[in-house]
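Throughout our pipeline, every protein is held as a single compact record rather than as scattered files. Such a record has a labelled line for the sequence and another for the backbone structure tokens. The remainder of this section carries one protein's record, kept here as part of the documentation:
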Amino acid sequence: MTPRVTLAVAARVIAQLRRDHRTVAMLIVVPAVLIALMWWIFLDSPATFDRVGGPLLAVFPAIIMFIVTSVATLRERSTGTLSRLFTLPMGKLDFLLGYALAFALIAVVQAVVVVSISLYALDLDIQGDAWQLGVVAVLDGVLGTALGLFASAFAATEFQAVQMMPAVMIPQLLLCGLFVPRENLPDVLQAVSDVLPLSYAVDAVIGVAQGNGFDSGAGTDTMVVLAFILGALALGAATLKRRTA
């Protein structure tokens, strides 16, 4: 890995995103709109919104980042851009880290917008610090990016890349504790949820929302999310194809 090359890849991706206003709007605006929709649904039951609103700060950014990243990476392969890039002195890890860094910057903006709207416009009730909630939301967005980069290696077309979302993210959505506390799941499903990254992303958000900061349980869950990010990037570098078959 060469830091200069990684930063060059990140700058290239950011330059592309600046010209793609619809994608930027999807990444930044859509999570906030979805959170606002959930607030509207539970307008007459604010306690329910307080219960599900925090976990959704992990779920929505991760899913949206996954979709956009997996499709964007697949497009780089299908158009031959990735093959041309690899004729330069650039490794696979440089490419993936550059993408992750670029989308991490987007995730920062995304987290600031969605957390600010949730706390100050929608009155989401949390006991913890807003900045810690923002940090976790950023990591959750980066988690979706890392999983999208990894999953894109197994898709041959952009349509297949979109299909990876229900295969990879929907099971995590169902088992992450958003609908049923993980400890109340059947034993087999609980064991499966214990190895899914989104479970720890949701646990980290819930921990911060309940006032358990990084020096307690939320810190452990946050470190597990970070480990999943690094693992997904490493696996992505090992499985990345230079072109579609």
